[in-house]
Records
---
Amino acid sequence: MAYWLMKSEPDCFSIDDLAKRPNQISGWDGVRNYQVRNMFRDEMRIGDRAFFYHSSCAEPGVVGVMRIVSNAYPDPTQFDPKADHYDPKSTRENPRWLQVDVQFERKLDKPVTLATLRAHEAQLKGMLVLARGSRLSVTPVRPEHWDYVLKLAGE
DNA sequence: GCCAACGTTGGC
DNA sequence: GCCAACGTTGGC
């Protein structure tokens, strides 16, 4: 089983939004980055765990844990002219963008803010979300980093 | 709102 | 294939 970190702007889709979905499952749609698409397709597997990370907000950081519950499949929003992430160059015969389904597992008792992560940079050396200029919305997390972040959350 | 960093596009 | 222009991300 692999570990991941997945960013979302809480104004757009927060961990509480995920927890309120039927069965607490949602498609992780809207990804329009080839590296992330390839990770969905080639590396992510059902049963993997992911941190839910709130970005572009007052307190960016890790706020909860979720589970990957589907394989990669075409993101339907790419075909919808009214959707924010509509891609006119993508077709149903040859879809360009993929998504996976995620299921809410739990919120952290104590969210781990970006500032806290940075304060522990020595122990989290190599964690991609801390890398300078890192903009990927989905990144792999090493098991030792996963455990350490949970420790920072008081677990 | 600013701006650094980075990805994508498209002319050549 | 190069690279300038442009768009996006995301912390601050």
---
Amino acid sequence: MEHEDPRARILDAAEELFYGQGIQAVGMDAVRSASGMTMRRLYQHFPSKNDLVEAYLLRRDGRWRASLAVYVSRSGGTPREQLLAVFDWLGRWFAEPGFRGCAFVNSLGELGATTPAVAAAARHHKEEFGGYLAGLAEAAGAPPTTAVHLTLLAEGAITAAAVHGDPTAAADAKQAARILLDAALPR
Amino acid sequence: MEHEDPRARILDAAEELFYGQGIQAVGMDAVRSASGMTMRRLYQHFPSKNDLVEAYLLRRDGRWRASLAVYVSRSGGTPREQLLAVFDWLGRWFAEPGFRGCAFVNSLGELGATTPAVAAAARHHKEEFGGYLAGLAEAAGAPPTTAVHLTLLAEGAITAAAVHGDPTAAADAKQAARILLDAALPR
DNA sequence: GCAACGTGAGAACGATCGTTCTCACTGGCG
DNA sequence: CGCCAGTGAGAACGATCGTTCTCACGTTGC
């Protein structure tokens, strides 16, 4: 466990700290001590804090979307049920200890105006998520606009859950999604 | 114009800087020079940066919600049309130059974990907004759950517009809101 | 055995930040 | 006129940050 890939150990520590406290609130020394590294080795793997931040966002994007896709595909229902399962996955995420909203929205608000790479990472993450929902919607036979609507509901649920610290936003969004799907897919 | 209330001049400068660049990215010296103040006078009105941040959020909350309420009430339609006018107002906001998402969500992501007053301000802002939509929904004869759904759509539209820099999220959300209202208020 | 090198641990450096202090100066009051 | 309370302008201070440097030490190759 401790002979892990040093890069992974650093990214693990960085992710927990950056996501939990905000990027600017975490100094490189905190990352160093949390990862059990020395300064030299830390900067060997990530030549600057910006590089570490970008790697953090990139890895989190991949893991987040993979976790969602695995959950949804294992839910094993119809495409319509898979679209609704997205909100179940959101509800589980919201209930995780330490949930603090979307890492990309948070980093965008904090650094988006000054660090273009952060803004680009957030845009990419949201585009991929929207594209994923669009794919599910297409499989369900729903028009693309419905996918956009569900994307907005999901985004809103993430924000609401973060602000109020209340995971029920996922169930609320799921309920609305069901109504929209029913309207788009008359049975 | 320049003999304005010093407090207002400071808050004007702070709002533009904090909202446009993030709170931590703006130093007190930048606020001082942008407001044409001296350090002494700046700290006379706001004894610490935290006080200034809280005042910034408080004033922005009041102005934001007042501007929305004025727009909606002047739209002069039925309660149902007023609910939809909320999304028109959002669209105008998104198209304003310098739009960078919700100031409260941004500050929550940046400072929410370390500054309870910021988290409380964000919660208050979102609760007031949700309550406002709930009032409109009640007047329209829609169930409270519909108000929650529209609130999630509005939140999602704000986030989407901020991430993609694209004001059309407001029209998308309005379209979804219409569907939800039609389902809740059969005519 | 020894020289060369890479590493650990942390001090050091320069920049920046929030906040306070200095100091010359101004205007009102006796 | 003389005094003093308050101000403007900005330097100063202590803390913190990102990043680099020092230096003693252990290891490796000859």
